[in-house]
Amino acid sequence: MDLENRLYFRQWLAGRDFARRDPIGGQMANYVYAVGDSVTKDVVLVDPCYAIDELLALTQKDGMNVRGALATHYHPDHVGGDMFGHSLQGVRELLTKCPCKVHVQRDEVPWVKHVTGCGDSDLATHSSGDIVLVGQIPITLIHTPGHTPGSQCFLVQNRLVAGDTLFLQGCGRTDFPGGDPRQLYLSLTQKLAHVPDDAVLYPGHAYDPRGQQALGITRRENAVFKPKSEAEWLAMFG
Ligand SMILES: [Fe+2]
Fold first, then answer.
1. Closest alpha carbon to 31 in 85, 77, 62
2. How far is the CA of 75 from the centre of ligand 1 (A)?
3. Which of 21, 47, 70, 222 has a CA-to-CA distance to 147 between 20 and 30 Å?
4. How far is CA 22 from the centre of its chain?
5. What is the pLDDT of residues 192-205, one digit of tens each?
6. What percent of the chain has pLDDT over 70?
């Protein structure tokens, strides 16, 4: 079977597909992704949060075995930790249930450790361009700073899992600790420039009723791609 047909890819929405009784999960509308190899049955979870047992049950129902977690960035609604006084489950709970590594971009490591309580031995530290192999399925990590210092996107075949770097409408905020509007501008216009228009954007939140959209359409329609210069972009989104 060729790799395209082997890809296992699921998009699960908090409050709908899991964590149905979690008011924060429903309100935040986070997506968790499962990316794996349907032949070897290996899978990684992108930004597992809110209800780890339910996410593991979803993978088990499909006969998949969780081999790791990919973290787009350190915010507690993606990796767990304390948010607005609420303790959210995340990668730390995942590690207690299935020993594996959390794949984190180098610049995000201190932030992820601080928010989740994970230690160095829990993390696999990456640079941009690194490839994580899940079974025989390669996932390319792209460092896209701006929303946070070590935000990263994941390219698997023609799918871009973008975390909070880019949504169908708008992009991630830059007013949280570590945010940098100029970096986000460069990430959107340069770091992601090589990802083709026919790739499909899978965002970190369901801020738009459509769960995904071709990147080319997003580049045409999303306001964050309208400014013609960095100065114009910063004036609108900085
Ligand atoms: Fe975020």
1. 77
2. 5
3. 21
4. 20
5. 999 999 999 999 99
6. 100
Q: List the domains of the chain with CATH numbers.
A: 3-237 (3.60.15.10)
- For residue 108, how far is the Cα from the chain centroid? 13
CA of 121 to the centre of ligand 1 (A): 24
Q: What is the DSSP letter of 144?
A: -
- C-alpha distances (whole Å) from 42 to each of 67, 123, 183 are 6, 19, 34
Sole residue written with tokens 């997003």: 218
- Distance of CA 225 to CAs 17, 145, 158, 169, Å? 31, 17, 20, 10
Q: What is the pLDDT of residues 117-153, one digit of tens each?
A: 999 999 999 999 999 999 999 999 999 999 999 999 9
CA distance 160 to 184: 16
Ligand 1 center–CA 89 separation, angstroms: 16
Q: Say yes or no to pLDDT of 1 above 90.
A: no
Cβ atoms of 218 and 207 closer than 8 Å: no
- Determine the number of helices (DSSP H) and then strands (DSSP E) in the chain: 9, 14
Residues 6+ apart with CB under 8 A from 222: 166, 167, 168, 169, 170, 171
Q: How far is the CA of 151 from the centre of ligand 1 (A)?
A: 9
Whose CA is closest to 183, among 195, 194, 171, 200?
A: 171
